[in-house]
Amino acid sequence: MKIVWVTNDIWYSKMLRFLFSEDSSHVGTTFNFDGLDLAIDINRPYGSLYGLKYWFHKYRIVEQVELVLPHDLEIEMLKTVADYAVMRPYDMGGYYYGMVWGLLHKFLRLPLPKVNKWSDGTGAMCQEIIIPILKSKTVKDTGIVNDIYDFANMSPSMTKEYFKKITKNNPLWKWS
């Protein structure tokens, strides 16, 4: 299983990277077992399951972290992420709130708020795909301690930096 931070040249990807001065604009998960290469992400209009070739045709990899799992745990993690993300509606309110505050932060130097007030809790944004991974027993067993479960107010790159911090010095997580 890999968590992959990516980007592309679509206007909102460029705008997100500009507003937050970041290198990535999207995050998803990939799974590879038994010759089956899959990607799961949450994007407009809802979370989806893709063939890996198609997904990487849409995006360029910025950075990724891999947790090598035994076959049965990889399948369990795939089911966990799919149950959470596939067909989950995209949180457009949360997205627009982030963009408004991104503009205010970029041009007026206002601090980013701690809570995304337009996030309704029923939908999700791409960075929230990390939630079921961090809540899983498999990941907790690797020694990861997570103290944030609300990723609605973080950009994809913010989640990457947070994930680097909590996996630092843990040999089970391999960054590339």
Keywords:
alpha+beta; endopeptidase fold (from Nostoc punctiforme); single chain; globular; 176 residues; 7 helices
Overview of this protein structure:
By secondary structure, this protein is an alpha+beta fold. It is 40% helix and 20% strand. It has a single domain, classed as endopeptidase fold (from Nostoc punctiforme) (Alpha-Beta Complex), CATH 3.90.1720. The protein is built from seven helices and six strands; from the N terminus they run βαβββαβαααααβ. The protein has a six-stranded antiparallel sheet, sandwiched between helices. Strand 2 and strand 3 form a beta hairpin. The longest helix is centred in the middle third of the chain and has 17 residues.
